[in-house]
Each structure stands twice: as structure tokens, then as C-alpha cells.
Amino acid sequence: MKGIKLSLWIKYILLAVVAVLFVKYFSTILDALGAVWHVAFPLVLGAAIAYVLNILMKKVERVYFPNAQNKFIRATRRGVSILFSFVVIFGIVSILVLIIVPQLIQAFTVLIDAIPRVYTKSLDYFQSNSGKYSSLGKFISSLQVDLDAVTKKLTASLSKVVTGILNSTFSIAGALTSGVMNLVIAIIFAIYILAAKEKLAIQADKVVRAFLKKQTADRLYYVLKVANRTFSSFIVGQCVEAVILGCLCTAGMFLLHFPYAAMVGAFISATALIPVVGAYLGAAFGAFMILTVDPMKALFFLVFIVVLQQVEGNIIYPRVVGSSIGLPGLWVLAAVIIGGGLGGIVGMLFGVPVAATLYKLLSDQVQKRLQTPPGVEETNRSGTV
Asked: What is the C-alpha separation between 68 and 77, in angstroms, rounded?
């Protein structure tokens, strides 16, 4: 008995010492973790790429001669599926870039050229209607904006920016080279994972069974199963919904004769991958682009997007994504806000499936503790819903 108490005291003392050391050397620990993350980032990125591509690869393998007896086809099925998955993803990204970037440059060029013209027209309008806008007209006239001076200042500022960019060319080139190398390493690592995923799964299972009790291992596998189902359903659902929303937006803009229809539709399709707020970010971008051509059309475009969002939120999203992730709308919004605050765009993307996984696991525990069968709606003591 005394031995048990002594061992407990030793554990508590060691725990206290570890806590004190953790607090004392917190900054050093963070630096060490940052260094480890910097080294491991390409591998983590590769694992993430492999997970996303695996969803598409499994579908390709089901279609690519699934019952073939030919040894060559069976031997090349995995390689062909991996290659096809990479080609599809690379093709989609390339198409988005080719659609968005040229028209984006054109829109900014139009905007810069239009600033003096818009100012002159506005000044002439208010001066010709001085009776209606007397105070505003006097105020604008009193500004006495020298467009040549403004242009010179903008040119000087731009030259400073260009000079700064040229001075930091080596830093930019180094960062770009590092990013490209990390991406190449990540892609290679992803290919290795996809090519040998069954072997890796067997090895991981052996490690888990060797170091964990059966009950703990089963619980771990259940958590991973829920997380995998939630993440895969979310990724597939969001991609399908983004494509549908982008196509509807592009078609509607063509029918309503809005400018930059293809570019704005592609951009909204890309931003729609971010739940809740993504489409609104795309709408703000689209309104700004259309504003460079026609301010009234930009206003009508916002009305069009609001209507499209209502259709998407009430008809498309419930049927495409539906309740596959099992997370109520309130918690979806909370997950996006918290995820964005913690991890930026990446946090917004993955905050929802993480929250959905935690929500499912917590729901299972609540039902288990209340001895309520899964799927049965909780009722209170009086029997009312």
C-alpha cells in the first residue's frame, strides 16, 4: 500500500517538474517545434495531397478494367490511376489560372486607365447640376485635384515598389525556389504513399496492435474511420458544389450580359471550396471587377449573387452535400470563423470537417452515456420532443 502511494507521489512530482520546465522553456520549445515543422512540412503536405488524390484514385481504379485478367493491366492499374488523378488536378488548376490571370490583369489595367476619366466625368456632372448638389459640387471643386501631380506621385511610388522588389529579388527567388522544392518533394512523397498505401496500412496496424491494448486500438480505428468518412464526404461534396455554383454563376452572367463572366465564374467556383464565406469572397471580387466597366452592372451583379446564394443554400447544398458531414449550420459557421482565425484559408477549409468529426464523436458518447440508440432523437423526461 505504501509502495503504491509512493509511486503516485513520484508521478505527481514528475508531472509538476515537467509542467514547470514546459512553462520555463516555452519559447525554446516553440522554436524547436517550428524547426521540426519546417523540416517535416513537405512530408505533411505530401500526405495531405495523397489523401485528396486517393479519393479520385479509388474511383479511377473501379472504372479502369476492374475485372481484367491481363497481367499488364493489373500491374499498371495503380500507376495509371495515380497519373490520371494528377493530370485531372493539374488540368483544373491550369484552366483556372489561364482563365483568371489574363482577365485580372486586363481589369486592373482598365481600372487604372479609368480613374482620371471617372474623376473628370464626376466633376463635370456635379458642376452641371450645381443646383441639386451645390454643397457637394463646391466641395469637389475646392479639392482642386491635380491629376498630373497624382499620376506623378503614383509613378514615383510605383518606381519605389519596383526598386524594392528588385533589391529583394534574391530573397524572392530563394523563397520561390524553396516553395517549388517543397512542392516537388511533397508530390514525390504523395506518389510513394499512394503506390504502397496497402503495405503502409498493414505496417501501421502492426505498430498499433503491438503498443496499444485491443480496446484502445479499436477506439482509435473508430475515430480514424469517422474522421476519414467525414473528410472524404466533405471534400467530394464541396468540390461538386463548387463546380455547380461556378457553372450557374457563369451561365447567369452570360445570360445577363455581365462582363468577365468566365473569370468571375471560375473565381467563385474556386472560392466556393471555403464553406459559408467562400462564395461571398468571390462575389466581392466579381463586383470589383465589373465595377471597372459599369458600376450599375456591379450593383445588379450583387443582386444576382444574393439570389444565386439563396438557391445554392436552400436547394443545391442540402442535396449535394446534405447531411453527409452531420454538422448543423450554426456549428458550420462557428467552425469557419474559428478555423479562419487559427489557420487562415487552410483553417477555413478544414475547420468544418474537423468540427464535424468532433461533433460525431461527442454525439456518440452522449448517446452512449444516455443509453440512447444512434439515430433516435433525444427526448426529455416528460416524453416531449
From this structure: 10
The string of pLDDT tens digits covering residues 14-54 is 888 888 888 888 888 888 888 888 889 899 999 999 998 99
Task: Mention every residue, 6+ apart, whose C-beta is less than 8 A from residue 126.
Answer: 133, 136, 137, 140
| Among the listed residues 269, 252, 270, the one whose alpha carbon sits nearest the alpha carbon of residue 261 | 252
The DSSP output letter for 378 is P
- Grid coordinates representing 296 are 450599375
Q: What is the pLDDT of residues 250-305, one digit of tens each?
A: 999 999 888 888 888 888 888 888 776 777 888 888 888 888 777 888 889 999 98
Quick count: other Cβ atoms within 10 Å of Cβ 107?
Answer: 21
> CA angle at residue 14 from 9 to 17, to 5 degrees?
125
d(CA 76, CA 66): 12
Phi then psi dihedrals of residue 278, to 5 deg: -60, -50
Rounded Cα distance, 37 and 43, in Å: 10
- Cα–Cα distance between 289 and 286 in angstroms, integer? 5
Q: List the chain domain ranges.
A: 212-372
Q: Measuring CA to CA, which residue among 133, 165, 150, 317 is closest to residue 239?
A: 317
Contact 302, 287 (CB under 8 A): yes
Length of the chain: 385
In angstroms, the CA 304 to CA 258 distance is 10
Exposure letters 11-38 (e unless 16+ CB within 10 A, then b): eeeeeeeeeeeeeeeeeeeeeeeeeeee
Q: What is the largest CA-CA distance in the chain?
A: 99
Q: Where are the alpha helices (DSSP H) in 278-328?
A: 278-291, 295-311, 317-320
Query: Measured between alpha carbons, how far is 354 from 18 in angstroms, rounded to an integer?
Result: 30
Instruction: Tell me how far the alpha carbon of residue 379 is from its chain's centroid.
Output: 37
Where are the alpha helices (H) located in 129-196, listed in sequence order? Answer: 134-143, 147-167, 169-195
Distances (CA, A) of 176 to 97, 137, 169, 179, 185: 18, 50, 10, 5, 14
Between CA 190 and CA 43 the distance in angstroms is: 8
* Residue 186 confidence class, pLDDT cut points 50, 70, 90: very high
